[in-house]
Design a protein that fits this description.
Radius of gyration: 19 Å
CATH class of the largest domain: Alpha Beta
Strand content: 15-25%
Largest sheet: 6 strands, parallel
Helix content: 25-40%
CATH superfamily of the largest domain: HAD superfamily/HAD-like
Strand order of the largest sheet: 5-4-1-13-14-15
Number of strands: 15
Structural class: alpha/beta
CATH architecture of the largest domain: 3-Layer(aba) Sandwich
Length: 287
């Protein structure tokens, strides 16, 4: 498999040239830099290597269950210093979408964790109660680890009433290092679809290219100068493809090598982990 690289010696001139152009690395989080609550042993050294060779980085996650502030605290606890400008989640992408495309929306019924609800409220939105009398302007469905049956039923009711309906991300499950299957946003809105026949009007997060647009614009980069690094083909790699960025699949999360071999379109680069990616980027800088 020509784009599966485990050693510098396997680099083709074409891949070497593409990697040499990279100025920024956008990193997925779950399954890429950590798994659940476990930081991969090479993550810190990878970030230090990027800094040493002058390649900037940011963290992107489809997991909206934490606010940006909470994500920064989690990263700090894991030993990773980060700023608010380096963190972008699907919750933030949803807020940006609503503000830009639906400025009339003020009240939301949100299936989301208290941390995520706080992120929306801090952005000026009013979250409605679980009542047929408290009518929202829009329904937002997210990865909700605090989900209750009553609130799921209320969300289905508002979907059935035809209010604007957006989902934060298309992930079916969330990676974890625990003996559990963490049911994610897509599985929750699939439940609502089964009950009502309605799908979200828009699903945000990866693979929507808008998740990378903010970085491209703020750093004045061309798509080929940014690497989107993640463990999922249908979100991380598809977003890279949709944005025209360089996609790097790591095999430390959901996708397997067999998945990578069967991926369409063909993936730009597959590596065992970000540790190998760091070695490849540093190697091309010495050429």
């Amino acid at each position: 498999m020509k784009n599966y690289i485990t050693d510098i010696k396997q680099l083709t001139p074409e891949l070497q040239e593409k990697i040499k152009k990279l100025k920024h690395v956008a990193l997925d989080m779950d399954g890429t830099i950590y798994n659940g609550t476990t930081l991969f042993p090479y993550t810190i050294s990878f970030l230090e290597r990027l800094k040493k060779i002058g390649v900037s980085h940011s963290f992107l996650t489809n997991n909206p269950s934490r606010s940006i502030s909470d994500y920064l605290k989690k990263l700090e606890k894991l030993g990773i210093p980060a700023t608010e400008e380096e963190m972008y989640s699907s919750a933030v992408a949803t807020i940006d979408y609503l503000k830009n495309e639906h400025p009339e929306v003020k009240k939301l019924f949100i299936l989301g964790t208290p941390s995520m609800v706080e992120q929306f409220e801090n952005s000026g939105y009013i979250s409605t109660s679980d009542s047929a009398e408290d009518v929202p302007d829009a329904l937002v469905v997210a990865f909700d680890m605090t989900l209750t049956y009553d609130r799921l039923c209320r969300a289905a009711w508002w979907a059935k009433q035809g209010v604007l309906y957006v989902a934060t991300n298309p992930d079916r499950v969330c990676p974890t290092d625990q003996p559990n299957v963490l049911v994610d946003c897509a599985s929750i809105y699939a439940c609502i679809e089964t009950a009502t026949g309605r799908t979200p009007d828009l699903v945000l997060g990866k693979p929507q290219k808008e998740m990378l647009d903010g970085i491209l614009n703020s750093k004045k980069l061309k798509p080929e100068q940014i690497a989107m690094v993640g463990d999922r083909i249908y979100t991380d790699m598809m977003m890279a493809h949709n944005a025209g960025a360089f996609g790097v699949l790591v095999l430390t999360g959901e996708a397997t090598l067999e998945d990578a071999q069967n991926a369409e379109p063909e993936l730009d680069l597959i590596v065992p982990s970000i540790e190998v990616l760091g070695e490849l980027i540093e190697y091309t800088r010495d050429k």
